[in-house]
Each structure stands twice: as C-alpha cells, then as structure tokens.
Amino acid sequence: MGGQVFGNFGMAASHKSASAVSQSNARVALAQGRAKRGQAYGHAARVELENEVAGEQAAENMSRLRKAQRQAGAAARVSRAASGFSTEGSGSQAEVSVLSRYEQAAADMVHARSLADVSARFNATMQRRAGDIALQGAAAEAEHDMYEARIARMKAHNAQQAAWVSLGAQAVGAVVGGIAGGWEGAMQGFKAGEGVGSIYGAALPGTVESQGGRNKQSEADFSAILSKGLEMWLGK
Q: Side-chain half-sphere of 174: how many Cα atoms within 13 Å?
C-alpha cells in the first residue's frame, strides 16, 4: 500500500481537526460579541436609570425652589407693609428683585437638567450602538471561521475519498495484474493503481497529491500499462 494512502488519511484527520478548531473559534467569537453587547446594553440601562433618578431629584429641587420663592415673595411683601411703603416704587422693586433672582435660578436649573438629560440619552444610545457593532463584528468573524470550517471539512472529505480510491485501485490493479501475469503482473497492477489514485487525488483540493505529492512514477507506469493494453486490444 502506497505512502499516499497513509498520507491522505493523515491529511483527512488534519483537516477535520482544523475544521473543529474553526468551529470552536466561531462559537467563542459569537459568545464574546454577545457578552460585549450585553455589557454595553447594561451600561446604557444604568445610565438611563441614573438619568431618571436625576430627573426626579431635579423635580424635587424645583419644587423646593418654588416654595422658597413663594416664601421670599411673602416675606418681601410683609417687609414692605411694615415699612409703610406703597405697592409701587422702591418697595415693589425690592419684591420684583427677589422674585427675579428665583426665576433666574429656576431657569438655570431647567437648562442644566435639559443638558444633562440630552447627554444621558445620547450616551445610552451610543452604548447600545457600540454593543450592536461589537456583535456585528463578532458575527462576521464567526461567519468567516465557519467558512474556514466548511472548507476544511470539504478537504477532509476529499483526502479521505482519495485515500480509499487509491487503495481500491491498487487492490484491483494487483488482483487483475496477478491473474494476467502472476507476481510480476500483480506488482505492475499495483503500481498502475497507485497511478490512478495519484491522478484522481491531484484533482481534489486538500489531498497530498493536490499539494505537490503526486506519484509521477506511478502515473507514468499507469500510462505505460494503459498504452500497452490499448495496443494489445487494437492488435487483436
């Protein structure tokens, strides 16, 4: 039995191992992508929750500010009444000044809260987007690994098939040659079988023959035997 048979069986095992590794890499890539997406979505949810809490706190602060504004306005009116000033003039101006300061503080508070809300929502959106991109990249990497696994499986099938074809051709060649010409004929038939296997394997990706391991001598022996057989058949 020729070394190419053993070589192709070995190549088949190697390709199967490579296919398993590629499939494992694909599963790992997908798992990592999903983990990154889950982490990003978790960060986004936390940002949104913190933003919601900040909004509630801002509403409470606004309520306290308005309460203080009303109290300050009432105090200004009491002070004006106690001073004997009318509702116009300097007494009124003092009350307006107090209320204006509170209105400005309220406006500043609303503006700051609005900016914080927009920033938080944007941050959460970007976190989710980053998670989606990470998963897409992992899916693309996994698809490439699965493609490599499919190619390796195909090569394993080819190498195994080439080994069996070569083995079968050698056996048939030896039997037929032995019937026709005894021991010498069996050896010639065996070599011719090797040539058949070499020619067949050269046409299949992933075999020893397709990677430069063709048995040129066996192929030549097969061609010579085939030519001699044709000459004998045509001469009859």
A: 11
